[in-house]
Amino acid sequence: MRRDPLVDTSGGDGNTPLDPDELDGLIPPHLRTRADLNQWEARNLERAITWLVDRSFDVLAPGALESLHRRMFDQTWAWAGVFRRSDKNISPFRWTEVPRLMRDLVANTRVQRDALDPDDDAVDQLAARFHHELVRIHPWPNGNGRHGRLATDLLLRQWGRPMFTWGERTLRDDASPVAPEASTVRNTYIAALRRADDGDFTPLYIFVRR
Fold first, then answer.
1. Ordered domains of the chain (ranges, CATH)
2. pTM given for the model
3. In Å, what is the CA distance from 99 to each residue of 12, 20, 80, 137, 142?
4. For residue range 90-124, what is the model confidence (pLDDT) as tens digits?
């Protein structure tokens, strides 16, 4: 059973601890450090974004969120696009609930969008709530933040809205060192998500368009 230290982390804001069977799903055999993994995943993500640029992608279509995660990590993890099969401290939901929660999220988002007037603030707020709930469900063993942000930006594109700024800096899902200002932005993002957990979405609304 693979127990490589580069992915067997203790968690934290940027990293979900992986179970042994999840660690065993690492595809490239040559990676030796967390930095190696970060670079490999970044290239995988770049390929996915390139593939998406000129394509119409319906985020709320059946299976679309699974397909997106698979496209983002198909060169990195054998379980890319497969819902997690273990419980995570970062999510209040059992892994057995994930399929139903994902179906409900997609269905509810469609209904709410159809009921909205073409008001920019209301559409943006719905997208922010979609993002929060997707991250809160935490459907994947790893890569939830990156997947959630890309899915939300694609949803905004689908609705004819500009993508979110996400604090105007790149957010990282890994635990490797980053510039202090980037860490500050990430901490603000995490704090906004936690406020949303308690029902106060205002900090998240502000952050995504800052």
1. 20-164 (1.10.3290.10)
2. 0.87
3. 25, 22, 15, 10, 16
4. 999 999 999 999 999 999 999 999 999 877 799 99
